[in-house]
Recover the amino acids of this structure.
């Protein structure tokens, strides 16, 4: 498979429909660029490609972005030194625990977030609940888009845009209306970078050659032979120490079995599958009948 | 004040209604442990203890479905059964008695003696990933359970379900806290002391003769007494106090799994071991099970704000917080996750 180094963004699709998300996702492209911006930028595009829109039920079909936002504005931000899920350094940080549950962590670290307004106007500013709507921050213009990079602790915020003196909101993004009819957009700032499934779906893997689909189910005598060796990528089992970092795509949908306790005649079956952008490892304990 | 409560509660309900659960599943990557129904109860007991979990969904290979959950309550009932003379369950049988057999027996028993009107449901109570947070919370409250498995099946008939998550009120509360964290200043009700809000169970004061007594136990009370109290009072934990009613520790239903250590359950007699000794069994130097922030019981003062109490309860593993008197640590009341949700959702 030519994947000996295990780097996620270079994984090939093995023909089973496992997506090769990281290769195409804007956030990983941003991460690889040697810019001064941090790697865990969560991008909101005015066309509605907020990563979580992908998870909403079908009747709220998200608008797809035609131009994934590749280059954030060059506002200098020190790279975050937390063990976050940077696609480039994931290999190195694989043993460090993911800090998505970090209630015990020291005071809130800011996460860079971008707000973009692409509906024209000369003078665009933003006001938000991060400081209780007290200050207005001007967005920087580049062509037809206005954008701003904010560094905010993880949480949910309300904001509105002031375009040439008028209060506006971005129509395609989640918004909320209060009793007086004022509309604010919702900004959900996460500690981690959610995967951008959109770009993965657009990546069509070539089908396997036709003749490989005619393999016969193993017969009795096939079972007397030694099993073929598992590819090295699969040697890291999901049943090893419960790692809370994002699993490599290559181990998804593979069933692992652990027969450790001969005296207890028990086996543990482990499977990691992906549901939308969440990875769940299910460990099932089953008795072993003699 | 009433008005404030209602405005804020309606905000919370709107928030909960609008969020499909999947968006707020706790982690990027999570692990769930399930058990085969044909496992002997004894092994299941050990697995729960070793993995440090209080509940596990049950999978039936024949049906290809999740059919129930095994909880700490099950073990409490099993141990009480073992102790009963004339019981059908013996030590040896524990080795081969499967979870499914236990559940059958339990259903049989409850059909015979249950007259409280609550239907004993044989079907698994579960939720889907797109159910709103409000539906999941209501599901949990109405069925008086602590966790609900989140299952998803891409087939029309619900076959080949995927287990995604075990949802609990603390996860949902964490979402609520996160949502309101940065607007706490603009919601005065969050800053109010909990003694001024109708929330939780409080020790009746002198002059309130009609209130139900608040259950507590001394550390030398027997484990059997504690288990009986848990079952009969239908509470999930009992505060352990000294002679001055100062809070020392807490015995929860989930502490029962500690008896699996070194097969203690086979060697002890429920009425001959004290709660204190039972708790010692579960706590060795390296075990952090049942602790949060270095403490087994979470405490607060009656003057603490609602916001502070909610933030504490939003931590995983914390299901209740005891209200104590400053200094003496005398127990004044308790607020549990379900109390908070009943208040938020306006349920009695």
């Amino acid at each position: 498979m030519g994947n000996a180094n295990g780097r996620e963004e270079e994984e090939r699709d093995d023909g089973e429909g496992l997506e090769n998300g990281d290769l195409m996702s804007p956030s990983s492209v941003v991460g690889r660029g040697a810019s001064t911006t941090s790697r865990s930028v969560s991008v909101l595009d005015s066309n509605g490609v907020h990563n979580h829109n992908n998870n909403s039920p079908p009747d709220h079909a998200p608008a797809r972005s035609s131009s994934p936002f590749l280059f954030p504005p060059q506002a200098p931000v020190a790279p975050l030194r937390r063990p976050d899920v940077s696609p480039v350094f994931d290999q190195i940080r694989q043993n460090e625990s993911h800090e998505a549950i970090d209630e015990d962590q020291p005071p809130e670290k800011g996460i860079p977030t971008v707000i973009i307004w692409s509906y024209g106007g000369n003078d665009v500013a933003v006001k938000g609940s991060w400081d209780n709507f007290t200050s207005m921050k001007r967005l920087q213009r580049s062509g037809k888009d206005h954008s701003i990079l904010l560094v905010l602790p993880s949480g949910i915020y309300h904001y509105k845009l002031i375009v040439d003196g008028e209060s506006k909101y971005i129509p395609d993004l989640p918004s909320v209306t209060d009793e007086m009819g004022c509309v604010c957009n919702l900004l959900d700032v996460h500690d981690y970078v959610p995967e951008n499934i959109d770009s993965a779906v657009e990546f069509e893997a070539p089908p396997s050659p036709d003749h490989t689909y005619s393999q016969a189910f193993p017969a009795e005598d096939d079972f007397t032979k030694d099993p073929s060796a598992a590819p090295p990528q699969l040697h890291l089992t999901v049943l090893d120490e419960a790692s809370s970092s994002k699993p490599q795509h290559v181990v998804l949908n593979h069933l692992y079995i652990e027969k450790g306790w001969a005296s207890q005649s028990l086996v543990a079956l482990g499977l990691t599958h992906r549901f939308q952008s969440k990875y769940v490892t299910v460990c099932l304990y089953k008795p072993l009948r003699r | 004040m009433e008005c404030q409560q209602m405005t804020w509660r309606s905000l919370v309900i709107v928030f909960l209604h609008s969020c499909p659960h999947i968006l707020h599943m706790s982690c990027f990557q999570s692990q769930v442990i399930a058990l085969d129904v044909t496992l002997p109860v004894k092994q299941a007991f050990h697995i729960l203890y070793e993995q440090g979990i209080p509940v596990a969904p049950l999978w039936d290979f024949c049906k290809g479905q999740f059919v129930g959950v095994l909880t700490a309550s099950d073990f409490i009932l099993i141990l009480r059964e073992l102790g009963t003379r004339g019981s059908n369950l013996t030590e040896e049988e524990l080795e081969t008695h499967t979870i499914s057999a236990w559940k059958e027996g339990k259903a049989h028993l409850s059909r015979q003696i249950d007259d409280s009107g609550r239907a004993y449901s044989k079907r698994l109570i579960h939720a889907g990933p797109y159910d709103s947070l409000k539906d999941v919370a209501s599901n949990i409250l109405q069925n008086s359970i602590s966790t609900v498995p989140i299952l998803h099946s891409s087939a029309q008939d619900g076959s080949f379900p995927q287990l995604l998550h075990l949802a609990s009120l603390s996860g949902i509360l964490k979402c609520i806290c996160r949502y309101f964290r940065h607007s706490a200043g603009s919601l005065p009700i969050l800053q109010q002391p909990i003694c001024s809000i109708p929330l939780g169970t409080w020790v009746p004061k002198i002059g309130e003769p009609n209130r139900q007594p608040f259950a507590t136990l001394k550390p030398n009370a027997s484990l059997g007494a504690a288990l009986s109290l848990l079952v009969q009072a239908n509470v999930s934990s009992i505060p352990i106090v000294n002679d001055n009613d100062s809070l020392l520790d807490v015995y929860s239903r989930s502490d029962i799994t500690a008896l699996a250590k070194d097969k203690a359950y086979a060697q002890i007699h429920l009425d001959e071991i004290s709660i204190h000794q039972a708790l010692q069994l579960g706590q060795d130097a390296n075990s952090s099970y049942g602790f949060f922030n270095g403490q087994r019981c979470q405490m607060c003062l009656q003057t603490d704000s609602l916001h502070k109490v909610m933030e504490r309860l939003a931590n995983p593993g914390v299901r209740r917080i005891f209200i104590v008197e400053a200094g003496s640590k005398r127990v004044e009341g308790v607020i549990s996750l379900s109390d908070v949700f009943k208040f938020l959702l306006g349920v009695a």
User: Anything to note?
Assistant: Residues 26-32 of chain A form the longest helix (7 residues). The CA atoms of residues 38 and 266 of chain A lie 46 Å apart. The helical segments of chain A are 21-24, 26-32, 197-202.
